[in-house]
Amino acid sequence: MKKSLTLFTFIFLQLSVYAQNIIEFTLVNNDSIPIPYANIFFENKTMGTISNEDGHVKISIPKNITKNDNKLIVSVLGYELKKLSVHEVLNMDFVRLESKNILLDEVIIKPGLSAEKIVNKAFDLYNKNFPESAFVAEGFLRHTEKNKLEYKWLIEAAIQMYDPGYDKDIEHIKTNIVKIKKSYDNRNIDTLDFYRNYLSNVKGMSFKKSQKKVIDIQKVSIDEIEKAIIYNDNKSGNPEYVLSSGINPIRYYNQKNAFLDKNLLKKHSFKIDTIITSDIDNADICKIKITPKNPPAKLNKHFGKYLLPYGWIYINANDYSIVEFEYILIHDNKVRVFSKIGGSKVHSKFTVKLMKINGKMYPKYISYEKPKIFFRMGAIMDSMVSKKEINKENQYFLKQEILFTNIITNSNLIKVDTDWNSNIFTPRPYDKEFWDNYNILLESKEEKKMINDLEKKISLKEQFEHQ
Fold first, then answer.
1. Which of 30, 84, 27, 72 is CA-nearest to residue 51?
2. Pick from 70, 103, 229, 303: CA 20 to 30 A from residue 237's CA?
3. CATH topology for 2-99?
């Protein structure tokens, strides 16, 4: 009995120590409304996280942090910055922030300096405000695909990204998948569409030739079909593709084939909406609204005049550094067919949040969303030809989020191993100890329910297949 009691006490103490190494709370305003996407980090450290859509925060305490001396910083635009001792916040269920937005007329803000000039100046000073030295960003990736009813595909992973510096070609960005937390696939893949896309983009076939090949798909080897599926999945899901292509808009600025460049900026309208005082560096942040020109201009070779740009860009009025960027492309009503096929007027949405470290802006959070209109195109086109209502199960929506929880700028600690692997579809064993102490992007309540439903379906599917 004594031996059992001693063992129980030991286990209890171990669990208590573990629990005290995790900070968890909900961030709200004075009206108890949750505050999403707030920046949470340890003072004088490059390690942190963000609050989820429900304002929930969960962050591991690093081994080099002293609970009594170190501070946890809670910062979000439009609210007072809050500094809390690690020991203090361990016992808090809620953290409240005071709002501090100031609405001002554009002329009062910067006499003679319009919103358009502020935006242009921010991009003129691009090389000054972004790092030109190499860095490694460690973080958490969540890739989801869903229709309007449920999640169909989910991957969560720990990720490393090597960036040679913003003055270097973006193609030199490298990524590595360290660990896989979850990987569930319950999609109904349209093999014909996947194979046609593969033939067009990899084999360079014309539509006519690829269509002929698809008709005789029974003659195609299983290996070739697998290559087509891997190609399509990697094109939309591989984080290296997301981080080293035009869909990482701020990083890709002014590079070859970038969709965001100096010429493109002239094809948008900008208006200052709000001035927000930031306590991080005592700066005024200009919240600038992005809308289409009137009449709409053809944006560039990637996006025609029937895609209308909307969004927000947040710019530090002191040094003109870009703090946040949200950019949404909407289908014009003249091309309703694309909205009908995709199940949404949104063509694509990009969100980038940045944080300042030693005077330079580094990525904190990147997300990319869009309808995946070519995923079940065959089934969708059949519905349209027969004039039937499109089955919502065939309209897929892709979202990839990357939360960077640690930035390494010390050149002595930066290394890219030859065995780095960016393929999120490579099987890896689950590492419980690793994930118990790794900072992740928390799901919202709605996302958690959809993930739980997907897990149950995969479990039932696996049980059925093994019977």
1. 27
2. 303
3. Immunoglobulin-like (2.60.40)
Q: Give me the residue spans of the domains in the chain.
A: 2-99, 123-465
The answer, as to whether pTM is greater than 0.70, is yes
The one-letter amino acid code at 272 reads I
> 219-243: string of b/e by CB count within 10 Å (b at 16+)?
eeeeeebeebeeebbeebbbbbbbb
Instruction: Decide the pairing of beta strands 22-29 and 397-408.
Output: unpaired
pLDDT at residue 278 in the model: 73
Report which of residues 317 and 236 the model is more confident about.
Answer: 317
> What's the rounded Cα separation, in Å, for the pair 447 and 144?
10
Burial of 66 per CB tally in 10 Å (0-12, 13-18, 19+): exposed
CA–CA dist 86, 457 (Å, integer): 40
Which residues, other chains included, contact 123 with Cβ-Cβ below 8 Å and sequence gap of 6+? 253, 254, 262, 265
Phi and psi based region of residue 359 (left: phi greater than 0; alpha: psi -120 to 50; beta: remaining):
left
Strand-strand pairing, 135-146 and 71-75: unpaired
Q: What is the DSSP string of 263-326?
A: HHHTTEEEEEEEEEEETTTTEEEEEEEEEE-SSPPP--SSS-TTEEEEEEEEEETTT--EEEEE
Cα 71 versus chain centre, distance:
27
d(CA 306, CA 373): 17
Cα gap 260→148, rounded to integer Å: 30
Write the pLDDT tens digit of every residue in 111-161: 567 899 999 999 999 989 999 999 999 999 999 888 877 888 899 999 999
pLDDT of 464 over the 80 cut: no
Distance CA 69, CA 59 (A): 17
- CA 289 vs CA 14, 77, 103, 448: distances in Å: 51, 15, 14, 32
- pLDDT tens-digit map of 216-261: 777 888 888 888 887 877 776 778 877 876 667 888 887 766 667 7
Report whether 21 contacts 53 (CB < 8 A).
no
H/E stretch holding 225: helix 222-237
CA-wise closest residue to 379 among 390, 371, 366:
390
